[in-house]
Design brief:
mainly alpha, 2 domains
């Protein structure tokens, strides 16, 4: 199977770049991006060289002890070599793509529930003022 080098892989590798703190790993990722963007007429390049560069980046991350980055690079390598399908890669790393949206949604739901709760308390207190003998 041909080596994949597409937007999904590039997005995944950008996530890896955000996760790493080691300059050596960032340098190795720069080499991967340089190779990917050196194709003719703006097309991404793949091939054996891409696989080799991904393996170098993975090895560099292992040398500096960034095991989370090693895992991310292994998944990138598996995707590039066709061992992970694109829907599976998207599902594995959806949290990176949807993380900010989920926080906004959570905050919206929390504020809606808070407003509903405050309204319920206000209505209940007004009812109790009008009906002092009321009980549960």
């Amino acid at each position: 199977m041909a080596t994949r080098s597409d937007m999904a892989l590039e997005t995944q590798l950008r996530v890896v770049g955000k996760e790493t703190a080691a300059p050596a790993v960032r340098f190795a990722l720069t080499a991967v991006f340089t190779h990917m963007h050196s194709g003719p007429s703006g097309r991404r390049r793949g091939g054996k060289e891409l696989v080799r560069l991904l393996k170098v980046a993975r090895g560099t991350a292992a040398e500096v002890g960034e095991w989370r980055v090693v895992r991310l690079l292994q998944d990138s390598l598996d995707y590039a070599e066709g061992r992970i399908l694109r829907p599976d890669l998207d599902e594995l790393y959806r949290v990176y793509r949807d993380g900010a949206r989920k926080v906004r949604n959570r905050d919206f739901v929390a504020s809606s529930l808070r407003a509903g709760h405050e309204w319920m308390v206000a209505v209940s207190e007004a009812y109790l003022r009008d009906h002092p003998g009321a009980s549960a």
